[in-house]
Task: inverse folding
């Protein structure tokens, strides 16, 4: 077995490979870009080398530099992960030329699977079922038109060198064919530099079911059951599960054996995935073969109890597969979702930013989180914005779904918009629970999946306010100024201090007035008064709102409060105005600064006639703004400070004469 390997990747897969390698006693070399200097995979590795600037072309795609580092560090093998160089035949060849083991398939296998038409020809010769169609080399218009007529409609035009759904065009009838062919050729030429076309009968409601295969150097080849990856968005997998629902053991055997036949046809080695289209009538057809470890491999690990990275390392070290086909067992059901920094309400636009708060569901035999980030990491614009993969297992699919829903509720991220709520909507959707899966699922159900949630705005608003007040009660370090509640200045002992909180949510300012009486709060919102109790312990706020007791997590970063209610996050920006309600006593005249601070704005001037409640001066302290207001109607005689001035606690800010009663 290797003593040291290099992981030519980043993020969760790099961490995942390091985790298994360390369990096998293998030392790990990480490589990183300038943007990843403090990344988790760098910290997990035994040593790490800088590749270059953040862009992938200057870092994780730098084959030459990666191989040099492998040689320099004494790494005997390179694990490419997925993406980046994992299916780059030149890189695999360069590794071999440098005497470094490429932990993946032989170069020839990567090449063979690189072209769809070449792959299909190999599969056809190997007796692997293909969608009825044409994938030959003769690309003349006449031949293609004749083949199109034979296949029938609807049919699909596919670019032989396309991928991920790019370069596909549906032809619904004969009349559409020639224009569609011309258009598809243009797109393929532009997109892939090659306009070779395949024509296939179009399956209108297929499922995407893929088989995990493994081959070693000693003639052993096995399949490790299947994964259903039908729920995709723009050819990106969103939810994956194993085993495939409503998929019999006979179908598993038939598809598995076809996948092994496909692997043997190209003399495969290592981990591979053979993708099939599974039609409504139960027939299945080869789609493509991926010559890498897939993102979704954990669901296979959870139902087989096997560590597929360990299998990869064993095979690359010329050892035999740990199990024969008869020894492969599957148990229970696993589901994986991909947690992304993206905005489902804005066409899934990728998001960047600091993960100011990050709490993962607790890991157990039922819950696994594969992640490459920790709290306060930045999601950068340079790489795929995947934050983590959340994988659950249980004895049945229904129980696994329940596990996933709870784990999604327990996954709390603030600082960037994520797809967590969307993943909950998907997982709890009746059609998903009923396993009504096909590759058009998200489009088909978009009206319900993207329906505006009946969010508990007001509840979250009140909880945010209670959090702010409870947090201010937390004993502050001695050097920091006391919170407004603890202030005597400007307060009279027999006054009931009132705090007005202006919380901004979705760019809407919402105002709450809160009075503290004995041990409870009276919160006034939109003319309603709610009697509340609250207790804050760490990030957990226990609150009673009227007759409803609840417990929520709340995080705060600068002046952003994030309230997590089930799988929703409510962000509030807050400005706090502290006003005193004088009890009409002789306390007229000067208005003093409630604490040390800085004058932000003076809203009045000497000689001005003002009304009770008018804001005279705004000051800032402890990252909060305070409005000093006119306690009564009256006249401003003098203003003692201007914007930008520092003022001491108790400093006289305004000389004021209330009008005669
Ligand atoms: C198909 C098909 C229907 N009929 N081929 C999409 C990209 C590539 N994986 C092949 N794809 C498809 N090929 C025939 N003859 C439907 C798809 C397809 C799809 C397949 C798997 C997963 C998601 C998909 C989303 C859209 C279309």
Result:
């Amino acid at each position: 077995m290797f003593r040291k390997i290099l992981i030519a990747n980043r993020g969760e897969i790099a961490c995942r490979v390091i985790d298994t390698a360390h369990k096998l006693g293998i030392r790990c070399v990480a490589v990183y870009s300038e943007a990843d200097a403090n990344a988790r995979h760098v910290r997990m590795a035994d040593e790490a080398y800088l590749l270059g600037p953040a862009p992938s072309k200057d870092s994780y795609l730098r084959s030459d530099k990666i191989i040099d580092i492998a040689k320099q560090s004494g790494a005997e093998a390179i694990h490419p992960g997925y993406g980046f160089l994992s299916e780059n035949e030149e890189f695999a060849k360069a590794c071999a030329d440098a005497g470094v083991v490429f932990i993946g398939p032989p170069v020839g296998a990567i090449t063979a699977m690189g072209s769809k038409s070449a792959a299909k020809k190999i599969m056809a010769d190997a007796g692997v079922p293909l969608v009825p169609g044409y994938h030959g080399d003769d690309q003349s218009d006449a031949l293609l038109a004749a083949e199109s007529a034979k296949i029938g409609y609807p049919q699909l035009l596919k670019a032989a060198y396309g991928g991920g759904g790019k370069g596909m065009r549906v032809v619904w009838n004969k009349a559409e064919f020639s224009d569609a062919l011309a258009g598809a050729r243009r797109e393929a030429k532009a997109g892939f530099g090659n306009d070779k076309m395949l024509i296939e009968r179009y399956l209108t409601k297929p499922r995407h079911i893929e088989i995990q295969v493994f081959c070693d150097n000693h003639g052993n080849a096995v399949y490790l059951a299947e994964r259903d990856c039908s729920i995709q968005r723009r050819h990106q997998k969103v939810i994956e599960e194993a085993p495939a629902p409503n998929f019999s053991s006979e179908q598993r055997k038939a598809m598995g054996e076809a996948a092994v036949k496909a692997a043997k046809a190209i003399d495969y080695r290592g981990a591979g995935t053979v993708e099939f289209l599974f039609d409504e009538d139960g027939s299945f057809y080869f789609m493509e073969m991926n010559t890498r470890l897939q993102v979704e491999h954990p669901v296979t690990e959870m139902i087989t109890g096997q560590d597929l990275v360990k299998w990869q390392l064993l095979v690359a070290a010329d050892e035999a597969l740990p199990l024969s086909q008869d020894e492969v067992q599957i148990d229970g059901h696993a589901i994986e979702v991909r947690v992304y920094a993206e905005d489902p309400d804005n066409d899934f636009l990728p998001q960047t930013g600091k993960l100011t708060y990050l709490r993962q569901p607790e890991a157990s035999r039922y819950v696994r989180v594969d992640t490459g980030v920790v709290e306060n990491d930045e999601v950068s614009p340079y790489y795929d914005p995947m934050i983590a993969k959340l994988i659950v297992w249980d004895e049945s699919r229904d129980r696994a779904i329940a596990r996933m829903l709870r784990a999604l509720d327990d996954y709390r991220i603030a600082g960037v918009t994520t797809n967590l709520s969307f993943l909950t909507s998907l997982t709890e959707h009746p059609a998903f629970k009923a396993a009504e899966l096909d590759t058009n699922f998200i489009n088909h159900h978009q009206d319900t999946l993207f329906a505006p949630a009946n969010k508990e705005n007001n509840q979250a608003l009140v909880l945010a306010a209670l959090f702010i007040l409870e947090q201010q009660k937390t004993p502050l370090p001695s050097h920091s100024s006391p919170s407004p509640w603890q202030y005597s200045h400007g307060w009279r002992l027999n006054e009931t201090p009132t705090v007005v909180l202006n919380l901004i949510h979705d760019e809407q300012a919402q105002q709450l007035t809160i009075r503290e009486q004995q041990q409870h709060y009276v919160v006034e919102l939109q003319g309603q008064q709610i009697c509340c109790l609250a207790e804050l312990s760490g990030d957990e706020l226990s609150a009673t709102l009227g007759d409803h007791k609840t417990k929520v997590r709340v995080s705060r970063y600068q002046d952003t409060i994030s309230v997590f209610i089930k799988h929703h996050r409510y962000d509030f920006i807050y400005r706090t105005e502290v006003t005193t309600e004088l009890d009409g006593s002789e306390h007229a005249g000067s208005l003093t600064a409630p604490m040390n601070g800085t004058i932000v704005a003076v809203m009045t001037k000497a000689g001005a006639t003002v009304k009770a409640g008018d804001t005279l001066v705004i000051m800032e302290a402890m990252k909060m703004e305070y409005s000093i207001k006119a306690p009564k109607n009256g006249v401003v005689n003098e203003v003692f400070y201007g914007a930008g001035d520092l003022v001491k606690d108790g400093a006289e800010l305004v000389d004021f004469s209330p009008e005669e009663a």
